Amino acid sequence: MKIALQxxxxxxxxxxxxxxxxxxxxxxxxxxxALLGPNGAGKTTTLRMVAGLLKPDSGDAxxxxxxxxxxxxxxxxxxxxxxxxxxxYSKLRPMEYLDFVAGLWGIPAVKAESYxxxxxxxxxxxxxxxxxxxxxxRGMKQKLSLAGAFxxxxxLIILDEPLTGLDAAAARLVKxxxxxxxxxGNTVILTTHIMExxxxxxxxxxxxxxxxxxxxxxxxxxxTQSGELGGTLETVFLDLTQDKDIA
Length: 247
Hints:
By secondary structure, the protein is of the alpha/beta class. The chain has a domain at 3-84 and 155-242: Rossmann fold (3-Layer(aba) Sandwich). The chain has nine helices and ten strands. Helix 3 crosses helix 4. The radius of gyration is 18 Å and the shape is globular. The termini are far apart.
């Protein structure tokens, strides 16, 4: 089995705060992996280092064997990162935005246009394809950002709170897209504070606390580690994190 993401003794410190502390983990290819933790546990810092937006103090992250520190260009070609705040160009329309992003990845225009149309239709944005993104609601911006993450068909997609701002129908649509993408053999890593989402969607779950991986595995394996046999993920999560003195 290939390893989509491998973190090795990853460290990041901000002044006196150790945000990520000797973090090591592996995410197999073809899995939807949920990275959970209390606020300030180091989730976003970890993902930003994986995406190459932050330089680790030490340690490394490898995307399908490509080091983000030694071979950043090769590693970044294999992934897409969607932050919790949509980053769009307000004066671009959806097709223009996707064409721009596709161009950054060197995707042929004809192929990009066909896939962009498919994504906008899937995400129910086709009817607003002529509108500037500055007029969009938070949920619409989130969906367009997701289309931008999909446009170069990366092997690994990393999403930080991807369902923020989405109504129930849009959230279901996005969840279905992510599930389908994993079933095609790709890998998705996401953070979420909605435990039900992780419980229903994730095949493996990692729980961070104080920048360290305190538990990892399937839901059943986490239940065993916490002693909450038959418990919900929320119960397991609270048990594991409160045992580590997190309020």
